[in-house]
Amino acid sequence: MKTSQTIISTLRDAPADAVIASHQLMMRAGLIRKLGNGLYTYLPLGLRAFRKVETIIREELDAAGLLEFKPTVIIPGDIWKESGRWETFGNEMLRVKTRSGQDMVVSPTAEEAFTALFRDSLTSYKQLPVIAYQINTKYRDEIRPRYGVMRGREFVMMDAYSFDADEKSLDESYSACAKAYQRIFKRLGLSTISVRADTGAMGGSGSEEFMVESVVGDNTLILCPKCGYAANVEKAACKTDEPTDTNGKPQKKTELPYEPVACPDVKSISDMETFFKTTSQQFIKVLIYKAENCALNLKNAPGGKTFKAVKDAEEKKEYYPKAFFAACIRGDLDVNEAKLAALLKASSVELAEEEDVVRLSGAPHGFVGPVGLTAVPLIVDDSVVSRDKDGNLCAHIHDTITGGLTKDVDYRHVEPLRDFMPWMTGDIRTVVAGDCCPDCGTELYSKKGNELGHIFKLGDKYTKAMHVTYLDENGKQQTPLMGCYGIGLDRTLASIIEEHHDKDGIIWTMSTAPYHVVIVPIKYTGAMKETADKIYAELTENGIETLLDDRDERPGVKFKDMDLIGIPVRIVVGDRNLPNVELKQRKSEKAELIPAETAAAAAAQIVRSGLAELNA
Hints:
14 helices; 34 strands; nine-stranded mixed β-sheet; 616 residues
């Protein structure tokens, strides 16, 4: 391809809203242009790189035995109502109506679509296992789209769904997809970290995310330097630590009854440490949360009768569109809202508004405590009270200080299990760097990352809700199990740039570059034109994707543009060097002079070696 036949649309400066390297460079290199908030168009060079990513994903999934489908982007709302997610997915889902009034969904994900497809075609165990996938457009109405295509509103996803007869088969499908993911990211030239993760709105279990390190990553990764434990902070666990008193010794039970202490304007944990002259590990912190679409049975829970339960469209199950809970945790720790939402089987949780806090507890946040709190269920973190292997409750902190359910009043000498009882216990703690690994006890560290792929076991969450069955070997109806596997193509492309760039621009991996080689004649005339055309013809005939810069521009402009765009190999043809030409790899600082007659072969060898290394 000659530059005169395509569009080279580089920018000197990045737009003001481009704050990360990939967004800046994709805009400056003319790979994308913004059409609207969170909406980007791929220009020819960007689309070529995007298609390379798509092709590698497709090749590896096909090689792993997955079958490609092409569902529609607009999905009937009825199947979302069947699964129960019409009411629970949230505002990111764009709902529309046809002219006849039928509810439709602009697909944010494809569990319902694939489950409906297989419900209509699956009849016998002989058809299982099967893993189907699509590479298709999605839309999520992100409240704050940012970072270019890294977090846009419209994007392209690879979604795969496995259907299996039993857990053993599901494990095998899961493993096959995980291995395909590893191959995909290696071929793309990406260094990924595999971490345990929360399944979020998709539901299910056995979740694993493939992350790339990024200083502006949306995710915090918790990692062990010794045993390899790795988890997203939303899922990360840590070894239980023993809280201490002011003297650094293990806390002891007190026989003293709890008593109120007037503490005007002592609201924060640091205020309490100063006022009570003790460590924050001696405090119990209680926060009131509002949970949306909670699927727990709250009929007999404290305050449960005040929460209104509803049934989904087909009245298959009850859930609470809005309910309130008190989260109880040790004073030096923070509540992990993703863990809390998972424990409550809720689509989301958020801190309650102050008026609700006062209405439910009698006190503002900062003075809420567990003693005498009866209007909401008390969810107690394992740092305060947990269950042993036999299911018995065990208190871990003693002689504690906590809110007194009255403004400017705290209680001291509070004993868990004596002065209050949990309605539910669980791990709702946010793990941070410095906590100890749950597997080997080594101190954990953290880094920022972006999610590229996510795989998890859905089980029968969707097949059961949507009545998918097959006949087993004995002619009995059974419900298949599902796995879910996704890769964001736009985000993956941006992540390649995040990992491979320098001050001058993009440094494409050989497998994803828009073109492998660019030929830059100083002037596209005379002997320079003749030599450039000959090298271009040889490379093209040998299957090497080559761009010939035939623009009437100054050499400096051409060099800067090609460094910015990031094509891996550059051949410069100039009068001064002929019959030699200059060959330079984008990732190298030095160029070399070689005979023009061998330039095509030398460039082709670099390209093939680069591809072979990634494909090994």
